[in-house]
Amino acid sequence: MAIIQTDQLTRRYGRQTAVDGLSIEIGERDIFGFLGPNGAGKTTTILMLLGLTEPTSGRARVLGFDPARDPLQIKQQVGYLPENVGFYDDLTGCENLRYMGRLNRLPEAQAPALIEEALSTVGLEGEGDKLVGAYSRGMRQRLGIAELLIKNPKLLILDEPTLGLDPDGTNRMLELIVSLRRERGMTVMLSSHQLQQVQRICTRVGIMIKGKLVALGSLDELSQGSPGDKARPNLEEIYMRYFKEA
Ligand SMILES: Nc1ncnc2c1ncn2[C@@H]1O[C@H](COP(=O)(O)OP(=O)(O)OP(=O)(O)O)[C@@H](O)[C@H]1O
Ligand SMILES: [Mg+2]
Fold this sequence. Notes:
Layout: E1 2-13, E2 16-22, E3 25-27, E4 31-35, H1 42-49, E5 57-62, H2 71-77, E6 78-81, H3 93-103, H4 111-121, H5 137-151, E7 155-159, H6 167-184, E8 187-191, H7 195-201, E9 204-209, E10 212-217, H8 219-223, H9 235-245
Parallel strand pairs: 4-8, 4-9, 6-7, 7-8
Antiparallel strand pairs: 1-2, 1-3, 1-5, 9-10
Helix pairs in contact: 3-4, 3-5, 4-5
The protein binds adenosine-5'-triphosphate and magnesium ion (MG).
């Protein structure tokens, strides 16, 4: 079964078409890398998948639900890390998680153990009692993932999860994403500008330029069909080729 499926999904803002007839399928346990230059339409697509923005035309199904009709189901069942993760700076990491847990109807009795486990999974053990206002960018990002883990969704949608992270933080985030797929069977869709990272962990990628999907497939599939290339192109070379053509 496809976890995410879109059919000619389109979103216009005035005369501008932010997402133009997007049709993709993301299967169970894929780590799908969603690539494209600034303004390509990645975040707009993600917002439509979450039911946070309505498509102008076309359809999407996420975990079997239509996000335009069933945004509440999607909200409950999908773990979403936005471009800018928002927390209460004047609460500690633990307090933020407890608050989010309550909003998500997490049973109070289970909350402390789940929160502790999530903090340790993301490498924030011992940091839960600090105010989030005193967290570094990487710590906030990891707290964002901890929040998702408590929800334990089948599907994670991460909008630039490694944005602003240092090399070590980036590696830890990538390893975490891979382990969530391996150990919890999660499906992941992530947007990124970091082609080498995407190349390392993604099972499939889609490249979007000016609202249009220009490439879709596994790295193996995308690196074929480059006659004359001595070595197989890497994702950066593939990306630049499409970018220049567009
Ligand atoms: N609320 C909005 N109102 C008007 N135009 C919008 C709105 N949101 C996005 N757009 C436009 O839609 C296009 C796609 O934007 P989007 O944020 O989806 O791109 P993106 O691929 O996520 O870019 P980035 O890599 O910079 O995050 C842009 O041209 C943007 O200006
Ligand atoms: Mg974006």
